[in-house]
User: Fold these one by one.
Assistant:
Number 1:
Amino acid sequence: MDFFIDTAHIEEIREAKAMGILDGVTTNPSLIAKTGKPFRTVIEEICGEVDGPVSVEVVSTETRGMVKEAKELVRISENIVVKIPITPDGLKALKALSQEGIQTNCTLIFSPIQALLAAKAGATYASPFVGRLDDISQDGMALVEQVLQIYDQYEMETRVIVASVRNPTHVLRAALMGADVVTVPFQVLRQLAQHPLTDIGLKKFLDDWAKVPSS
Ligand code: E4P
């Protein structure tokens, strides 16, 4: 399973990269806004740091604008994957972009049929949002399970990115289901490496080490 970080903060991206587990980055307009920096500065900084795919979302809502934005975005760096929302216009944009060989990530997926449509339209990646479904008392990971089953059944090549991840259990379930990618906020990424018994064990080793005579 590939690990992407879901952030636009360059410091978080650098830290995740240093941890040796970073395969790519996903951003969205809200995450870009949180940096307080101009859009292009943020994207250029991220693409300069990361070798893997960097998802960047369009803000147009009609096909022509989406395609135009996508073409401008991929000129910034070859690792840009254009994020397109799953709407009727988005589907048309996905089709046009896939015919031009531009990589896409179909975003804001909340139903398995939306994911099926995204794959049929030629999306490179599809992003089911699990946390936002959990927030309204639905089981977000059940959506991922259905999407994986459909893609497997029809041998579709679109890769599934488990998105809107809120906790390590989402990551565990994604790995058990065989999801292709999980995109994780920085604080969850840190949590993944932690365990209370690791902390207790380390403290005990260091306390005992202090009792070892120096000569
Ligand atoms: C995915 O690509 C999105 O950027 C992200 O996972 C959305 O997560 P949120 O629901 O925490 O905003």
Number 2:
Amino acid sequence: MPSATPPAADLLAWYDRHRRILPWRAAPDEARDPYRIWLSEVMLQQTTVAAVGPRYARFLARFPTVQALAAADWAEVAEEWAGLGYYARARNLHACARAVAAAGGFPCNIPGLAALPGIGPYTAAAVGAIAFDAPVVPVDGNVERVMSRLHAVEDPLPGAKPRLTALAAAFMEDPAARARPGDFAQALMDLGATICTPRSPACALCPWQGACTARRSGIAAELPRKSPKPARPLRHGAHFLLRDGTGRVLLRRRPARGLLGGMLEVPGTPWRDARWEDAEALPHAPVAAPWRRLPGVARHGFTHFELEMVLFAATLPAAAAAPEGEWQEAGAARASVPSVMRRLLDLAAAA
Ligand code: SF4
């Protein structure tokens, strides 16, 4: 028999007492700023609340409003995003800020938000609910977990997503949730992050413990079940760390479109399934030089594949023509490249 949706009022009462204080969260008597909410949601898609905190504050200090972000050069945005991963998201963030600034502000409904660059259904729902009290329940991994447990959904993810989304949406039929959609969304997020946690849910502290089917059956910690992930393929690259006479390193900007679009990189070959033999890699070097292959490899995990890179190093010969790219001091180079490239700099430092 399907379990009933528990009262939203119980969760809201819990939230009113235990809500987390977060840098992007307005106090109950404060106006909600869609820019801050949107920025935090984009950042939180790739990393944890603890890791986002300082980066969020720094980003906001540099770009305090959506207009300031829209007016910034891409290079400034990329620099501030360095190390946060998923650069396509930073590009979309910038494009979205420009669209919002041009329109005079954020749209306050879900279709308007969803039409902005880089805003998917989850972010549109989160910003819509939290900033504008749109009557929706944004469903992320936390909310899927809570729903799977409340209703003891044993079908594995990702197949169970539509069912879990429908179970979450059913809360909007409860007048208490409908009266406070933004608080309800944040309450669910907080419950998932602090009580209904992945490994050992603190059910004794949960406002919904009496209604929770998985708790009653003793299977809460086992849910949600997940279909086994296919193994990520391994790809290979060879890169070239060129220094000039003063120790600066040569970086190159990647094409605007595609993986790490527009970011700086240590020049290299394309990434492919087969390993690069030295003789086939060297023609990709930015300049003819006495290249020396460094011992070891650098590895980096992308969402869809694992990358293994070898690194060649050389000093620019005095007679060589200046290759295309940007020369940067070692420290500045480290700060301005994405994490995958930092692994190459670490490999060079360890050699
Ligand atoms: Fe999660 Fe336990 Fe609450 Fe159920 S009772 S929703 S498993 S914390």
